[in-house]
Amino acid sequence: MLLKGETKNKMMNKKRLLIIAVLFTLFGVVTGTIISSHFQIPVNSYAAEPAISKEAIEMLTKTNQAITEVAATVKPSVVNIASTKTLEHSRSMSPFFQDPFFKRFFGDNFGFSEQPRKYKQSGLGSGVIVRKDGFILTNNHVIRGADEIKVTLPDKREFKGEVIGTDQKTDLAVIKVEADELPEIHLGDSDELKVGETVLAIGNPFGLNATVTSGIVSAKGRANVGIADYEDFIQTDAPINPGNSGGALVNIRGELIGINTAIFSTTGGYQGIGFAIPSNMAKVVMENLIEKGKVVRGWLGVTIQTLTPELAEQFNLEDKRGVLVGDVSDGGPAEKAGIQRGDVIVEYNGENVDDVTNLRNMVANTPPDGKVTIKLIRDGKTKSFDVRISEMASDIGSLAEHSDNQLKGVSVQDITPQLKNTLRIPERIAGVVVSDVREDSPASGVLQRGDVIMEINKEPVRNLEDYQESVAAIESDEDILMLVFRGRSPFYVTLSAQ
Taking CA 267 as the corner, what is the angle to CA 266 and CA 269, rounded to the nearest 5 degrees? Predict the structure, then answer.
């Protein structure tokens, strides 16, 4: 019986010890939890699963909803433009047919087809409905030279497009379709646009209808890009690809603030730099084309140039802003007002003059017969002149475009420091830059945008004036020999009148 009692006591002691151990453990866990929560010591040694806060989800949801609403509002106003043009040319069946041996026995036309070869060329682009009654704004290069234009709306309706007017100097055009109550877009004020603002680009890249891309405004006032004569581009990183030309660049309010025009690329694809024509410039051109069939621009009658630090020093100028007057046209508005060669224009009608492009655009946008005040510096003194702006003649600065020789349809411009840097033109190269070559030009396929024409018929071309004088002296049946810089070196090309 004693042994049984001892055994019973031992078992009870073990139970007590077990209960005490459990209670001590629970006490330790509770105490540790309280201490860790007080001192913010993590209980788990493993990281918690990442979680998205409710606030973040709500904010992103609102942003996504805003973008989709803007896109849905604007997309019906952006159309697809398909153009078709007929081209023709005569071509040799083989280069060796040019050998004098063959020409001696078979004549000068041996190796050439008797009839010019005709073929159809198609192009795709975009456009923006700017009026309910069928007026559509697009790029000039989208419909240039087209025999047929087909406009397809987002709702799949198709219309034949009629060209109302084109403006090569800004690369804009207006076409019209016979329809009513179309979804027009609201034009915004591009001057109010800020760098860094969110924008959407809507168009038809690679023929893919109603494509929306987003980005920001990277810069404003981009000029000397070599795309058009009058440049004041909005730069954006919103993807713009082939087929987007003529499409809409809109702000977060769904307002048209630019017409997508071109990309900067070394490969032909998107590389993060796109250019759009500001809506304020496009509006002026559009209204002129619709109301008058042409663009009416103001003319000051001066030749201006960039005011470099070296020139500012020579003219004893402390402030290096403004543009230098290099020449004054006889009988022009500037001469009548008293402006002289060597004057530095610093202000135009209350607006600061920053560079050559800035002043050119302001003068061009001034209605003819309008009166403006020009502030300038002459011999270290500030003077003001009231000038009555005249209308720019349509042939000023475009002699070659209207010439009747092999350079017909070729547009050029002077080399500026910005162009020299953009096109990587060496310092030793002088001439004029080809800004455009119409597809129906005799020079099409020989010259291309960005070429520098250094000589014409062995005569040096130093600037636009030299170029115009040379072209004016060439007869329609005369061959042209040119020295052209392209890529990394100059080379000779010929334009045959035969």
Answer: 110
Run of H or E including 98: none
**Catalytic position from the list 77, 126, 141, 229:** 141
- Catalytic residue list contains 245: yes
Is pLDDT at 82 greater than 70 in this prediction?
A: yes
29-43, 161-175, 423-437: range with highest mean pLDDT:
161-175
- Here the contacts of 117-120 (C-beta below 8 Å, separation 24 or greater) are 117/88, 117/89, 117/90, 117/91, 118/86, 118/87, 118/88, 119/86, 119/87, 119/88, 120/84, 120/85, 120/86, 120/87
State the pLDDT at residue 92. Answer: 45
CA-CA distance, 297 to 362, in Å (whole number)?
A: 10
Domain identity same for 197 and 244: yes
For residue 267, the domain's CATH number is 2.40.10.10
pLDDT digits (tens, 9 = 90+) for 413-457: 888 776 787 788 998 899 999 887 877 788 888 898 889 999 999
**The last residue of a domain, from among 371, 391, 411:** 391
pLDDT, position 90: 47
Domain total in the chain: 4
Catalytic residue flag (residue 141)? yes
Share of the chain above pLDDT 70, in %: 78
Selected catalytic residue, list 77, 190, 245, 390: 245
Last residue of a domain, one of 292, 317, 337: 292
Is 477 annotated in the active site?
Answer: no
| Residue 36 counted as domain residue | no
Q: Which pLDDT belongs to residue 383? A: 93
Given the residues 83, 126, 171, 414, the one annotated as active site: 171
